[in-house]
UniProtKB/TrEMBL annotation:
Protein family per UniProt: Belongs to the major facilitator superfamily. Sugar transporter (TC 2.A.1.1) family.
Origin species: Saccharopolyspora gregorii
The UniProt record lists the keyword Transcription: no
UniProt-annotated location(s): Cell membrane
Organism phylogeny: Bacteria, Bacillati, Actinomycetota, Actinomycetes, Pseudonocardiales
Protein name: Sugar porter family MFS transporter
PROSITE patterns named in the record: MFS (PS50850), SUGAR_TRANSPORT_1 (PS00216), SUGAR_TRANSPORT_2 (PS00217)
């Protein structure tokens, strides 16, 4: 027995319907950002309450990422079996449950369990949200609509910093964690009015339902042409195996997808996202001042993500990425120098915050944006889902490793040594991307594929 998609709302134009659906779905991105960022402030108060050593502080942060890796591994399977919209609904429930349990956690074990649950939701959302938006969006609006998810992630991180600052004086870490339940409930109820992905419906042979959804999101005059395109794409992808993905001709693209994801993590962005207040308190800042400084970092994240989105189709991927990555490396070198030659008192502390904000700005406008964009452009359509998973696992795996080592590395290498190590990784990444990343602006996916296949032959 099959279920039908919600009846279309004739009063809304196709553009309004698709934009509304994208915003509701992208609340999953907001939750992704909030739940990854909020621990940076909450950890200042969780650590003394549960008497956590630096190792266990890192475990609390990393538990979310363990769950995310599981979510990435299972999220695609769940979305293919149940549908994109139903998967998003389940994900919103898991987000809500994780927020409530973490806020009420009486002990460390419960807190870790709730973080694993939230991580699973984040991993699933990181796959399902952009996939759903891409599959309901008309081709001419797909880039801008999918980018809503990235803006939501950045906004979620900023909101987590703001809530941390507002609740810092009371030390109310439980409220910091629990507030994530509000957008997750909004997402759950908002999803009731959204259509299922027409692509998923076509893949399940539910053509009449797909036709009804397409009438709602692209207009009656384009239904049959879009339906024909979807049918061809589904047929092509169903015939692809991982053996096809790993053929020699695909290896340059696979290596590039992994390389972009690796550079994204190895320049240390999540050392700052997860631990900025902790690092600043170690540098002599008070708790409230450290959290307020992290709000500035969050603002830079959102603003320069928007700047990157405005520039990426104007100046191209390569110039934006390479200039931004150069700025990231310069910021890391400067941060290391400050730790090496000053005691960070007075104006030097302000200089440290300024360099952290500069770092976040350069990262957000370049490699932070490019990781997701490049992985969506370098693979043929039929292979994109399976091939893109290599970059996704690289991203989350390195994220986990870094989150487990930041505070220990801070002590082992000294602050200067740690930031300079990230700068070295950035320089290696700059060389690699300058050498191997083709410009994809203005090229069709087929033209990008031809460039990478030519490299494979060489």
């Amino acid at each position: 027995m099959t279920t039908t998609s919600p009846a279309p709302a004739p009063a809304r134009s196709p553009a309004a319907a698709v934009t509304g659906a994208a915003v509701v779905a992208a609340l999953g991105g907001l939750l992704f950002g909030y739940d990854t960022g909020v621990i940076s402030a909450a950890l200042l108060y969780i650590a003394p309450q549960f008497a956590l050593s630096e190792l266990w502080q890192q475990v609390v942060v990393a538990s979310l990422l363990v769950g995310a890796i599981v979510g990435v591994g299972l999220g695609g399977i769940i979305a293919d079996a149940l549908g994109r919209r139903r998967t998003l609904s389940i994900t919103s429930i898991v987000f809500t449950a994780g927020a409530v349990i973490s806020a009420l956690a009486p002990d460390l074990a419960t807190l870790l369990g709730s973080r694993l649950l939230l991580g699973f939701a984040i991993g699933t959302a990181s796959l399902s949200v952009p996939a759903y938006i891409a599959e309901i969006a008309p081709p001419e609006k797909r880039g801008s609509l999918v980018s809503i998810n990235q803006i939501m992630i950045s906004s979620g991180i900023l909101l987590s910093y703001v809530s941390g600052f507002l609740l810092a004086e009371a030390g109310a870490w439980r409220w910091m964690l629990g507030l994530a339940g509000i957008p997750s409930l909004l997402m759950f109820f908002g999803l009731f009015g959204l259509p299922e992905s027409p692509r998923w419906l076509v893949a399940r042979g539910r053509t009449d339902e797909a036709r009804a959804v397409l009438r709602r999101i692209v207009g009656a005059d384009r239904v049959e042409s879009e339906l024909s395109t979807l049918s061809g794409a589904v047929t092509a992808e169903d015939s692809v195996t991982y053996r096809d993905v790993l053929k020699p001709a695909m290896r340059p693209a696979i290596y590039l997808g992994i390389g972009v994801a690796a550079v994204n993590q190895l320049v240390g962005v999540n050392a700052i996202t997860y631990y900025a207040p902790t690092l600043l308190t170690k540098a002599g800042f008070g708790a409230s001042a450290a959290i307020l400084s992290s709000v500035g970092i969050g603002v830079a994240n959102v603003v320069f993500t928007l700047v990157g989105l405005l520039l990426v189709d104007r100046i191209g991927r390569r110039p934006l990425l390479l200039v931004g990555l150069g700025g990231v490396v310069a910021s890391l070198v400067g941060i290391g120098l400050l730790y090496a030659v000053t005691d960070l008192s007075g104006g030097w502390g302000v200089a440290l915050v300024a360099l952290l904000i500069t770092y976040e700005a350069m990262f957000s406008a370049s490699i932070g944006l490019a990781m997701w964009l490049i992985n969506s452009e370098i693979f043929p359509t039929a292979l994109r889902g399976k091939a893109g998973s290599f970059g996704m696992f690289t991203h989350w795996g390195l994220n986990l490793i870094i989150s487990l080592t930041v505070l220990s590395a801070f002590e082992a290498f000294t602050p200067s040594g740690l930031f300079w190590l990230y700068a070295v990784f950035g320089l290696i990444g700059f060389w690699y991307l300058k050498k191997y990343l083709p410009e994809t602006r203005g090229r069709t996916l087929e033209e990008v594929e031809a460039v990478l296949r030519a490299r494979a032959r060489r």
